[in-house]
Amino acid sequence: YQSLSKELWSVVKESLSNAKPYPALELVVQVIEQEEETDKMYLARVKDSGHCMPIARPRQFKTKWVEAVNGSVNERLNLCNDEKNGPINSYMDKLRKRIIEE
Fold first, then answer.
1. 82: left (phi over 0), alpha (psi -120 to 50) or beta
2. Which residues contact 11 (CB under 8 A, 6 or more apart)?
3. Is the pTM of this model over 0.70?
4. Distance in angstroms (rounded) separating the CA atoms of residues 38 and 59
5. With bands split at pLDDT 50, 70 and 90, how would you rate the model's confidence at 100?
């Protein structure tokens, strides 16, 4: 299960840095949807049975997907903030100069 998780988040990260359509991302979405459905059924079963929730449970992939996307986006934004790797600093400098001029 851990190998599957690592592969899923790797595909998510690669798809965000790829400008073209990324076919493997569709499979990731399908797996996430299946896992979320399994998680809902699991929670309903635990609720109906009235028992305490055991430790083993579906992995909440949708939440982890959001975390993976946020992490990848933050990583890319940090690269853009670096003068050597992105144009954001030059845009900010131009904006600062215009504001000072006006």
1. beta
2. 22, 24, 25, 27, 28
3. no
4. 9
5. confident
